[in-house]
Amino acid sequence: MTTNSYFQIICYISILLLLVKPLGWYMAKVYEDESVGLNRLLAPVETMLYRLSGVNPKQEMPWTDYAIAMLVFNVLGILSVYALQSLQASLPFNPQNLPNVSPDSAFNTAVSFATNTNWQGYSGETTMSYLTQMLGLTVQNFLSAATGMAALVTLSRGFVRRKADMIGNFWVDLTRSTLYILMPLSLILALALVGQGVVQTFSSYQTVPLLEALSYEQPSAVLQDVSGKPVMASAVTKEQVVAVGPAASQVAIKQLGTNGGGFFNVNSAHPLENPTPLSNFLEMLAILLIPAALCYTFGMMVGDTRQGWAILAAMTLIFVTLIFVTVSAEQSGNPALATLSVDQSANVSQSGGNMEGKETRFGITNSALWAVATTAASNGSVNAMHDSFTPLGGMVSMWLMQLGEVVFGGVGSGLYGMIMFAIVAVFVSGLMIGRTPEYLGKKIEAYEMKMAAIVILIPPLMVLGGTALAVMMAAGKASIFNPGAHGFSEVLYAFSSAGNNNGSAFGGLSANTPFYNGLLGLIMLFSRYWLAVPVLAIAGSLAAKKIVPVGPGTLPTHTPLFIALLIGIVLLVGELTFVPALALGPVVEHLQMLGIK
Prior knowledge:
The chain is built from 19 helices and 4 strands. By secondary structure, it is mostly helical. The strands form 2 sheets. A two-stranded antiparallel ribbon has the order 1-2. It has a two-stranded antiparallel ribbon with strand order 3-4.
């Protein structure tokens, strides 16, 4: 670890935490329908949307109706994105005349973007037209993020309402999340990114001359040897096609909504998607901005900001610890190469270490910091190739997803996942002292524990079950091009990503096949909605309960003791569930790297 590494990490964490309170306060005011300064401009638009859609904003819903509205709305989103991909060849804004997307890939992508996963088994610039990117993918980036935020808001209401049957109106929560929070922030960030050089245009791809002609050999299309194999022929390339498009607008919401994915195949490692150190910092900051600020929003909505700070402290402590583990692992490099006197540093400004798969303009620290941030949140965008990280560096990103995407996590979904762990923590502590557990004035009983258990256990079931199925079946093994421990890690990473709605990948796995598109798509569906619906059920159950006065046996849930208990529960569940699988992948690979047999 260098001084520069410490400075960059401290700068990032400090600015992130400084923005938590003002943005968290603003979002709480939005959800509590109080004046936030934008009402004069946006309230008429909000009213018009309700009138056009026939929604009565004052009519609230029980949790069952809320869940049905959410599911129906998301199904319609899946169908619309699927249709756009299937018809894009005949639709406008397709200057490259890209063909329709195959049915299995279209299904996977539609599910991926509607569930806030943004797993991409394709190259964006060679597969999706501008219209599909804008009207299909970017729209779902807004709406899938708003859906997660709406579910969190209902849970917050459940803690403060007494003997109530209603938990809010899904359409109102969805609209206000999009109109007052996601759109203004995306507009600001998109303009800042355009100012840094992120491309935003409807022009066709540009052909530019190379400064120096490139000579290479390729199989001849007409010449063959006696065995019928193509003869290698010399070729000279004097120009290159540069992909462009309306990227900045999609990049902004993909980061702010913890959607991830990328307009270009190489994501935020692309110089037209992330051209400068400042754009890199802004995009990385945007990944965790809303998830972190929602902790303060939650505290305000339940009437005790200390609760929000406690959850944020637990998230931050895990996050910072794993940042240092990842940066240290990457800066240590590969000892097998060190014995060969190979300089793993890309340039003299680096202190040495594993620079494989990393952009020299970002270096080890910014690449590792991004990797931890994107997998702590359910974001999945990358500015370096995670597949090229050291075994321990890659394992951290994988394990962060396997914890349930609760260390910040997705917008809304990360925090309500962490609250499920908090419910388990107070239940365990209640068992220790022989008292009915309470959290924020509500008794935690059998029903809440059953729903919380579903939320915590479904992702591991999807991840481990999917991985086992893939490595047993011929169709799954056919896409593994790296044999041994690393090949297993690639499969485990893919299902960890899909099962926790992240979207990043170890790039060595060829996942754009009917087998992986279908299986990963189903896992993304189950992992999103089998978690969201139980959370809404808990919100409805809590809202119907009365407030329990604080007594001598009540466990304070804002103290360092509870923060430590919460961290312990999260890590314990993650270790017991995934350590055996990790031992077969990155742990074995690390031992092989060290030459230990």
